[in-house]
Amino acid sequence: MSFYLYTLAAGVAALLFSLFAAYFTLKQPEGTAKMREISLAIRAGSKAYLNRQLKTIAAFGVILAILFYFIPHGGEIDIAFATGAIASYLTAYIGMNVAVRANVRTAKSAERGVKHAFSLAVMGGSVTGFAAVGFGLISISLLLIYLTLSKVAILIGFGFGASLISLFARVGGGIYTKAADVGADLVGKTELNLPEDDPRNPAVIADNVGDNVGDCAGMSADVFESYAVTLVAALLIANSIKGATTSLFSYPLLIAGVGIVGSLLAMLFVRSFAKPVRALYAIILAAVVISGILDFALTTIMGLPLTYFVSVAAGLVIAILIFWITDYYTGNVSKPVIKIATAAKGGAGTDVIMGLAVGLRSTWMPVLIIVAAIFISYFAVNSVYGIGIAAVGMLSLTATILTIDAFGPITDNAGGIAEMSGMAPGVRKITDHLDAIGNTTKATTKGFAIGGAALSAVALFVAFASAVGLTSIDALTPLVTIGIFIGALLPFIFSSFLMEAVGHAANLMVEEVRRQVKTIKGIMTGKAKPDYAKAVDIATVNALRALIVPEVIAIGTPIAVGLILGKAALGGLIVGMIPASFVLALFMANAGGAMDNAKKYVESGNFGGKGSDAHKAAVVGDTVGDPLKDTAGPSLNSMIKVVSTISILLAPLFVAYALL
Questions:
Q1: How many CB atoms lie within 10 A of CB 335?
Q2: Distance between CA atoms of 86 and 170, rounded to whole angstroms?
Q3: Fewer CB within a 10 Å sphere, N or C end of the chain?
Q4: Quick one: pLDDT at residue 353?
Q5: Distances (CA, A) of 60 to 525, 547, 551
Q6: What pLDDT does 1 receive?
Q7: CB 285 within 8 A of CB 325
Q8: Contact 413, 214 (CB under 8 A)
Q9: Rounded Cα distance, 278 and 398, in Å
Q10: 413 three-class SS
């Protein structure tokens, strides 16, 4: 069918731009030998972690592929599963490998001014963003050509492959990055009074590695997964509609293609403003407006009712609103953040209490926005198909969102390299400024990822109901009620293991930093070099070890409920899981982001600045918030989609073999 050619062309265009951005970034100068040495250490640690993680993923993947082979169309499902997993891993691997090379180049370009450093960091981040949509759209288009629309249900294997990688990348990367960050801060800042990224801190390289494996590789796999499963869910919903025309199948894929065009044109705004923060938001707004105009034109050209465009527009509006809300609650000079920083004057306890309060309150507006979008998109089309294309509309901005997210770890690492290599104070001031912006954008992109996960999970639930023949969920039925309770419980149990893993690994990191400071003479005077590799190894080993239980919980729970209690109970589990996970993820991500920026607000000179009692209290608050915002909260995005996709994938087993 001709529309495949358009979607393939859009995917290829995205991938070509990603390659161009990588080429342009890597052509820039790396700086001094000292800068290159530090960058190489970060690069080596990041690569070693991903390579070791791949072995764990491969073991799980082989076991699951064998299981899938014995269900209907198992061979084709395995092909789709492998394609999704490989595409997701390539996105994370390529994006992270450019990011760990862009960091030193961004630090060097800061010598030429803030605008040069900002532009280079955005260009480096765009490698991840455009690789994600390129691999995603190319893979789905080729699979559809191979499978034909008559076997579109097999595409859920592609979605599950992406989900599996996302879960590993998010959970493992999240545990790694926060174990290193918390360990570095608790000793370095509160005990030794060392500044951020001080080379005398043994955990500093591990901390910078964590920014890449967590915020870059983990986030890219997370949003790639949302992008992939949202497209698959929209196609599955179209497939369930009696008498569905080709237009209903092609529309979501063409919307995704339009989003790529909008994101490419939005990149022209990188140098549109003197202030980087304004340029970033100009890129986002431009992507939304351009995509909206093109989506309107697409709907008209295809001869579809304009109500379809209303559903797509609802998804685009969600993206802008969630960005604004997250920025309000977590921005570095927002009222909620200043409120937390003020509370730090009373000590760590009051800082944490206020941070948790801000996180709890931050959930109400995003929930109402998602609810409104579901209502509008459904009734605009008078079908659940409207919800599916609203989710596609929101996720069509994936290239822009991931570009801005990857900007964060690049500038964070650039600041670390500038500090550790002893670059001029003016350079460090520029990298600190960009890091502060990146810290805020990382929080806002997490909000986008959580909202996107919630909307795509609703679309996946509709696809699940169609797969098992459910037309309604009766909450008065005992088995359904049991399923709802299990689903609501699932994100809390899942998150508990992640928080525990971070706490355990961070404690080991704290002990290691203290040990090195005491036993390696000359560290504090700068005459001796810390054993950075030991700290990196502690974070790596403990992150990979802690992966297993959360993975088993996410994959095993829906299988057990489906086989023992049946399809209605599993439907109840998904119903309970989606809102509980969405609200809990919002709470954790926003509470952590706000406490992080409250610490930075104090460090900027307020309430006594660095080294003050308020600063020490804010650092403790930040260490509580770190695993909330970078480990447990974002990992719930992956969990809900893993549960949803494997429920659809194994639907025939639940229908045929359930005990009850």
A1: 10
A2: 16
A3: C
A4: 97
A5: 47, 11, 9
A6: 52
A7: no
A8: no
A9: 20
A10: helix
Q: What is the DSSP letter of 629?
A: I
- Give dist(CA 459, CA 14) in Å, integer: 25
Angle at 423 between CA 417 and CA 424, to 5 degrees: 145
Whole-number average pLDDT of the chain: 90
Residue 609 in tokens: 């600045």
Highest mean pLDDT of the ranges 19-33, 150-164, 414-428, 510-524: 19-33
pLDDT band at 2; cut points 50, 70, 90: low
How many domains are there within the chain?
A: 1
Q: How far apart are CA 534 and CA 540, in angstroms?
A: 10
CA distance 222 to 175: 15
pTM: 0.92
For CA atoms 507, 508, 514, 517, the dihedral sign is: negative
Contact of 464 with 574, CB cutoff 8 Å: yes
- Is the pLDDT confidence value at 20 over 90? yes
- Give the residue ranges of DSSP H helices in 267-332: 276-301, 306-330
Torsion of CA 444, 447, 448, 451, to 10 degrees: -160
- C-alpha to C-alpha distance for 634 and 128, rounded to whole angstroms: 18
Considering only CA atoms, give the Rg of the chain: 23
Q: What is the DSSP string of 299-317?
A: HHHTT--HHHHHHHHHHHH
The domain containing residue 341 runs over which residues?
A: 2-657
- Alpha carbon distance 344, 428 (integer Å): 26
Q: What is the C-alpha separation between 57 and 50, in angstroms, rounded?
A: 10
| Contact in structure between 431 and 415 (CB atoms under 8 Å) | yes
